[in-house]
Amino acid sequence: MTMTTRTENVTPNWFAAIMGTGIVSNAAATLPVHAPGLRAFAVVVWVCAATALAILCCAFAAHWTSHRTNALGHARDPIMVQFYGAPPMALLTVAAGAMLVGPDVVGTTVSGVLFVVLWTLGTAAGLTTAVVVPYLMMTAHDHRQVVALPAWLMPVVPPMVSASTGALLLPHIAEGQWRLTLLALCYAMFGLSLIVGMLTMASIYSRLVHGGVPPVQAAPTVWIALGLVGQSITAANLLPSAAPAGISGGLRMFGIVYGLVMGGFGVFVFALAAAITVHAFRRGLTFSLTWWSFTFPVGTCVTGATALGTALGSTLIHGLAVVLYVALVGAWGTVAVRTVRRSGPRPHALPTTAAINVASSSVA
Fold it and tell me: Angle at which helices 177-211 and 108-139 pack, to 10 degrees?
């Protein structure tokens, strides 16, 4: 099989595997416990995520070069285009890992440069996706059979990931206007993603209540909503640490109150997503790339609980972060092994979001 054939169906939702793998490393590096081997595990997982990102970026570029018709078809598809939010988040997740554990592998200087490059590229791509995808939905897509799907959140969340990972860069910028500007940018991206995301979640919730649960193969995507919850709590509680003294206290209090309120909503989303998933398994849910939805969203809840627990000084919330991390590693291990087994020498044979396309047409 030629390389051209192998890249024929490299779709953007493959980057969800990088997101799900990278968050395992990042969450481990920030956990409030220091178990033996945890740091080494985080480093190994980050190296795997970074390597996979490099390979996948090359394959995705080859896909656009050699199979432009297919690539344009995916970009014009109202479902697949939502997953163009995955590449920016993959870049940002690996970038965060470069700052958190990268120095153990490539040194402080190289890891810092890698973080800045990946964060800048991911942020630019994420902001572009957050505007372009909704614009295409409003102007270019067929509106006769439109239903709100959890996948609609994919292009909305990247700016929130930029905000939370941007908190890692702030301490390395000298105090003054440059740091204040980046802090303001991070909070602006926080607001963009939060407001548009909550509006989108309201539409999705209304569709689920009035139209019923998604068809079986699309059920895992309901976990995507949890990503906005966890990532926003992470951002709200990390950003104040590098704020100027005059406003840091107020921002810290905002982060704690926001985290507790949004955390309550997160418990509801988690319970509902778990119930819908059990419902789908009972009706024959089989493996596809949508299963990566079980990883990254839960990982953001781990980082969110860690950040909130630290800000509040709560042992209970830190304990919750550890429990969630154990669940995350279990989910990641299961999905990663199944992905490798099913991809093999023919990655295009692995079921991807075709299931979601079928789902959207069946409920329209």
Answer: 40
Tell me: the pLDDT tens digits for 187-237?
999 999 999 999 999 999 999 999 998 889 999 999 999 999 999 999 999
HSE (CB half, 13 Å, CA atoms) of 52? 22
User: Which tens digits make up the pLDDT trace of 109-154?
Assistant: 999 999 999 999 999 999 999 999 999 989 876 776 678 899 999 9
- DSSP string computed for 135-161: HHHHHTS--TT----GGGGTTTSHHHH
Q: And the tokens for 18?
A: 């990088």
CB 18 within 8 A of CB 94: yes
Give whole-number Cα distances, 282 to 163, 212, 226, 279, 353, in Å: 38, 16, 22, 5, 21
Dihedral angle computed from the Cα positions of residues 125, 225, 7 and 284, in that order, rounded to the nearest 10 degrees: -170
On whether the CB atoms of residues 359 and 143 are closer than 8 A, the answer is: no
Among 87, 113, 100, which residue's Cα sits nearest to residue 26?
100
Return the half-sphere exposure (C-beta side, CA atoms, 13 A cut-off) of residue 128: 12
Helices (H), 32-85: 38-66, 68-76
Give, as one character, the DSSP assignment of residue 7. Answer: T
Q: Give, rounded to a whole angstrom, the gap between the first and last alpha carbons of the chain.
A: 38
What is the structure's pLDDT at 4?
53
Q: Report the chain's C-alpha Rg in angstroms.
A: 19
88/119 Cα distance (integer angstroms): 9
pTM above 0.90, yes or no: yes
Residue (of 305, 302, 306) closest to 32 by Cα position: 306
